[in-house]
Amino acid sequence: MKTLPKNLRNVVYSLLFPLYCPSCEKHLDNGRGWLCPECWSSLIGAEKGQWQHLKPLKKIAVKVAFQYDDVTRMLVQQMKFNGRIDIAEMIGEKLALCFGNLVVDYQLKAVIPVPLHPVRVRERGYDQNLVIANSFGRELNLPVYPKVIKRIKNTKPQSRLSNSERMTNLRGAFKPVMKTNDKLSGTVILLDDVIHTGSTAVGCVNALNEAGIKDMLVISAFG
Ligand SMILES: [Zn+2]
After folding, report:
1. CA 60 to centroid of ligand 1, rounded, Å
2. 121 pLDDT tier (thresholds 50, 70, 90)
3. Tens-place pLDDT, residues 27-45
4. 81 C-alpha to ligand 1 centroid (Å)
5. How many domains does the chain have?
6. How far is the centre of ligand 1, averaged over its atoms, from the C-alpha of 42 (Å)?
7. Domain check: are 129 and 38 in the same one?
8. Which of 58, 79, 103, 144 is the most exposed place for a label (fewest CB within 10 A)?
9. Do 108 and 16 share a structural domain?
């Protein structure tokens, strides 16, 4: 689907998916992105994008685009468990609109998606963080490096655990794959689809440090 031109993709989505926005029930021109453009634009928190310093990530600044509420929770479920790659692509495009200014402000070098475990990718059929990162990178002309770190533990879903269980669950979950070269010196963006307590990001930040990357920002679609 990704390789099809955009207008052809829209035709395919209009055949595959219901033509009504599940949030406002408005008729859709095509089913791409699940929500209608107005509902996408009005997602709560879409405009705020303030830097936050989550407790376990004291030195790393985190920005979240959209609030995790009833609508965005369903959006994430559709993306993760119903094979809706189009939602992941749309999220990447929206993140690029929200955070495009960071490319110049921080002289960004690359975007690194939070890796999924290979077993999870096989179950799901695709890696939604990689699709989001590719879409984000394409919009902003930013290279995507998905193989700097990898997830070596197939951890339980974080959303079902308490805060302390989340840290234990993720201990040793991420490892560097390679030492980075000069190409990656500079600030990189670590990108995740959903951020709750920040413990997943902490695991990735530590692995990125081991890989030789010191300067990074964390952005997330939902949190
Ligand atoms: Zn709508």
Report:
1. 35
2. very high
3. 888 888 999 989 988 886 5
4. 21
5. 2
6. 9
7. no
8. 58
9. no
Shared-domain flag, residues 166 and 217: yes
Q: What angle do CA 171, 173, 179 make, to 5 degrees?
A: 115
- What is the CA(28)–ligand 1 centre distance, in A? 8
**Tokens in use for 2?**
């990704």
> Alpha carbon of 219 to those of 1, 99, 195, 222: distances in Å?
26, 9, 9, 9
Same domain as 191, residue 111: yes
Task: Give this prediction's pTM.
Answer: 0.86
Distance 31 CA to ligand 1 centre (A): 11
158-187 pLDDT, tens digit per residue, is 667 777 777 677 778 899 997 766 556 789
- Ligand 1 centroid to residue 131 C-alpha, Å: 23
Ligand 1 centre and the CA of 32: distance in Å?
Answer: 12
The residue written with tokens 């939604």 in the block is 128
Domain that holds residue 24: 1-42
C-alpha–C-alpha distance, residues 206 and 218, integer Å: 13
